[in-house]
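pinging the channel bc i need a second pair of eyes. not urgent but kinda urgent?? the chain im working w is below, pasted from the shared doc
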Amino acid sequence: MQLKGISVKNLQSAVVLFLVALPLNLGVAVSSGVPAFSGIISGVIGSALVGLLSGSTLMVSGPDAGIGVLVLEMIRQLGADKLGVIVLLAGLMQIALGALRAAVWFRIFSPAVVNGMLAGMGLIIILTQFLIMLDSKPEASGIANIMAIPAVLLKAAMPADGLTHHPAACIGILTITVALLWTKFAKGFLKNLPPALVAILVASVVTTILNLPIQLIKVPTESSSAFSFINWQTLLLALRDPQIWMSAATVAFVASAQSLLTAAAVDSSTKGKKTNIDREMLAQGVGNAVCGALNALPIAGVLLRSMANVQSGADSRSSNIIHGLLIATAVLTIPSALNYMPICALAAMLVLIGCRMVNNIRIRIRQYHRSELAIVCITVIAILVTNLFTGMLIGFACAAAKELYSLAYLGIRLDETEVPNRAFVLHLWGAATFLHIPRLSSVLESVQPGSELHVRLDELSYVDHACLELLMDWGELHRQQGGEFYIDWGCVDARYRYRGKDMPERLLAERTAG
């Protein structure tokens, strides 16, 4: 059924997105240390503007808790007045990447580093928002937040006059409990209501009825006072600061990587048109440039909202655009109603989102090799000890070192079989290149003439022409001396050309031999 080109399913999905996004936009803004209305502006731009330009039909963009971690850190280091400049420059960088069709280069980054970055962001979300949930200010680093938690927990557990830690903790626990119970037990029509919205509504009602002395969000009732355009004089001065450019590059990288990961997840969940990643990069850049000009939060593709859009049955970008218009309408018509939301309740929902984020990464990396898991762990620890940008650089350095080691390393093991001095198995793993010819030759020379040798190549990640030629030459000589020579070609691809000529039929036949 269509209504002026917009299906009922898209309208329904728009309503679901509105209910999901509104409290999260506010929560991310408050947790990032910026006015609540900043999250609303970014949410509208991310949905209405980016949704219109997007290279993905169903992906939903907006302020995200992980990006909020970046913003909080940058505000601490550089000040809130530099946020607009950073976001604007990040948007322009994304526009340049999209125009140059460079989005594909984001796929070269090690998945272990990207997952480590996301896991680190998730842990920082949990740590910072947990402290905010207990009505305490987060510290400058992840380790400092961990060390601050015991003292704050003690204050929250013991009610005291003049302190708001205990009531804030109670409302935070109530919020998480309601969200979890609603997710598990809601049936029928009630299941369509987002748990985050229900939990925050319950927390707001309880806070209002009991008149609890906890902090509430503050949304301007006059929209004209909520907008603040970037100070162009500040922009010109900031352009001389290397830290501004580094921060902008970090925002551009993290937002772009997250958006493309989200787009890939949406594509894998639908059978529709795949994302045009260069167009998506352009759309994200335009959105962030506009957000920067309005001193709003940066945006990125958000997995939670995108999956809600897909699961609600949307089949066009209209659901995304309409939900942004619904958010703008609600804020312009009933802004005072939003001021009943407790900050601790919004933080509690972000704690829950952070836990789910870390759990999703845990599930994703279960099948990783130990070396990849080590890179994930190093990246996470580095982020917690230092900061997000430095942690990412350390992760990239470790991933690059691992790849260099893999390209330079060749494992060689010669095993004697049950027939002493008559049959051997040569195991090769890693990368067999001309650099390892002396060592490989030495091992081959230790094989007794007249014996049988089986060579296993299936564990090699790479083998070059020089090593293959060495094996073939040695095999020919070994056969002439009365020995047996077999190669298990495994995954070695294509027909090998022997010294510019076709491989001898006898050796070619051995490709399928044991």
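so DSSP finds 20 helices and ten strands in the chain. and Residues 1-5, 493-514 have pLDDT under 50 and may be disordered. — does that match what u expected or am i reading it wrong
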